[in-house]
Design goal:
This protein is an alpha/beta fold. It has helices spanning about 10-20, 35-45, 60-70, 80-85, 90-95, 120-125, 140-155, 185-190, 215-245, 275-285, 305-310; strands at about 1-5, 25, 50-55, 75-80, 100-105, 130-135, 160-165, 175-180, 255, 265, 290-295, 295-300, 315-320.
């Protein structure tokens, strides 16, 4: 294992490389572009034996990602902001195909107006598509979560795409010390992709999740996806636990900071939660029993964990980094 000062984008690229992704369909968009540039250099130099294809849009990119996954190859892709929305139709479709892949989203606010701040409305818009979501607060979490995401999505009990989210600019371009696992150790953890019954071959044409003619059959397949997503909580805890055993870094579904005797709690997601952690320390110094809960797993939503961790507090302040117009914060 080596330690390097790298950006969140570079950490995502390392995650894809260490997971031995076979295929990278891509379309550049700020602030995601550095991920694609890094992977392109490695592929061109022969350091990463994968194939990259630049598509004409994020819609085509996600279509290609899902189609490639159904042939039994391991797929990685990335996008941001308006790009995620442009491909949103295919996120629903790929989840319906039960095609596992990892998509890194580098959160950036949606227009209009336009800002480069990492508003979470892009990733929150994808919360109901069927893709699972892991949210990161540090560059180390980005790399680790990408590896965990492959184990999670490719599990035979799940078979769903996984989105790993990091905050644009604040994390994507920030350099932090990151422990990069040895390639052999990462490969042993992630393992080979076993597509099982998912595999499609042109020589053996099949029809899979193409058309459903009645409402009852449609509901059946949608509910099957719901059951897989709900069961992903247990799978996540198992694969994250194995990751901790192998690499010494624990990534719980909800990170609890100074919550043992807390009367009040902040609830935040993403890199801005590190600011809340500093605020908790200041409040503790002033004699206030305050803690912080930071959900890493957002889909499936870890409701049982939240109930357990909030059962003894008098109140919680949920600080959203998004706004559902006409309703309020999505996390709240």
């Amino acid at each position: 294992m080596s330690r390097s000062m790298i950006t969140g984008n570079a950490a995502a690229a390392w995650g894809a490389r260490l997971a031995q992704a076979d295929y990278v369909p891509a379309f550049p968009i700020t602030p995601q572009t550095e991920i694609i540039e890094t992977l392109a250099r490695w592929i061109d130099s022969g350091d990463m034996p994968a194939r990259m294809t630049t598509l004409e849009s994020e819609h085509s990119m996600i279509t290609a990602a899902g189609a490639a996954s159904t042939t039994g190859v391991r797929v990685f892709t990335a996008t941001s902001s308006q790009g995620l929305l442009y491909g949103m139709e295919m996120l629903y479709t790929v989840a319906g195909w039960r095609a596992p892949l990892v998509l890194v989203n580098v959160s950036r606010a949606l227009s209009s107006p336009i800002t480069l701040e990492p508003d979470h409305n892009d990733i929150m818009a994808a919360r109901d598509c069927g893709a699972l979501q892991i949210h990161c607060a540090t560059c180390q979490e980005v790399l680790d979560s990408t590896l965990i995401a492959y184990r999670l999505g490719e599990s035979s009990d799940v078979r769903l795409p996984v989105i790993v989210n990091l905050d644009g600019f604040y994390l994507s371009y920030t350099r932090e010390p990151v422990d990069i696992p040895e390639a052999a150790a990462a490969a042993a953890y992630v393992g080979a992709f076993d597509p099982g019954t998912l595999r499609f071959r042109a020589s053996q044409p099949t029809s899979q999740a193409v058309a459903v003619l009645s409402g009852s059959l449609y509901s059946y397949f949608r509910y099957e996806t719901q059951l897989a997503a709900q069961g992903a909580t247990e799978v996540y805890n198992n694969v994250a636990g194995e990751f901790a055993e192998r690499f010494g870094r624990a990534h719980l579904d909800v990170v609890a900071y100074r919550m043992d005797d807390a009367d009040y709690a902040f609830v935040m997601m993403g890199s801005f939660a590190t600011k809340a952690q500093a605020a908790v320390d200041r409040l503790r110094t002033s004699g206030h029993k305050v803690g912080l809960l930071r959900p890493r797993l957002f889909r499936p939503f870890p409701a049982d964990t939240f109930r357990r961790l909030l059962s003894g507090v008098r109140g919680a302040a949920i600080i959203d980094q998004n706004l559902s117009i006409g309703s309020g914060g999505v996390l709240h």
